[in-house]
Amino acid sequence: MPGKNYKLEEKLDRLENNSYYRIFKLILPILAVGGLVFAVYDNYQSNQQSENILERISTKYIGNFPTQIPEITNRINSCSKKLVIATDHPAYGCFSSPDEFEAYKLAIFSKLSKSISPGFESLTLIVYDKERRRKELIKQFDLDPSKLSDTLYFNDYLKGNKLKAEWKEKLEAFKTTENAIKEIKTWNDLFREIEKLNEEISKKVQNSQRGEVCNINIDDEPLPVYYWLFESNDYALVSFRSYGKLTKEATISTSHPPMIEYVNGMSNDIKNSKTKN
Description:
Helices cover 54% and strands 16% of the residues. It contains nine helices and seven strands; from the N terminus they run ααβαβαβααααββββα. α3 runs parallel beside α4 (98-112).
């Protein structure tokens, strides 16, 4: 054993004196750092490529109603030439998200102002008419049309499970908006206040030289989707809605040609069948 230890030490001494080994010991930390830097750079490049790929994807999920309203508002604010809006109510989201609705409304009004948006050309609003909007609200809340003026019927809706509690919170928020009365005691009261906001936007667009309103009446086909078509049909936001006990709505952003052709064709069909109101 002692002899073996001596030989091992002798080999280690020769290795330490080897010039190549000394160089290797010097550059080893540099190689380690270089490898780390390369790994970080490679990861960065991969992330950048992933982001670039995502940017090139023509269709993206935006969000569910009403949390997607701020993004819709941002897109309206960025629109420079033309805009087509197709929704059930002109006052989109006024009850579900009153604060975000106010920003949405102001974005629409800014496009109608020559001083705020001097280069903007036209805004087309495709919406249900007053009678159709009321029918949609009754359907959405699953109501008995004969009890819309009944206070007890309205109050009973506010009692119940967590979903109804969330609805009550929305009602309280809506009641504090500038254009709503402080007390809403029946469904007819609520519908009246929503309609005031609808009329405010509809008339503002209708009376503008840049605006056009196309009303879909009770006998027309319903909108299969809601959408916001931007510029010269460059891209659109499209909302898909499901009905039932839990109404849901999801919005995507798309520049996919078949989808753009679909919503643009829908707009043209509706405008061609209607006259400016």
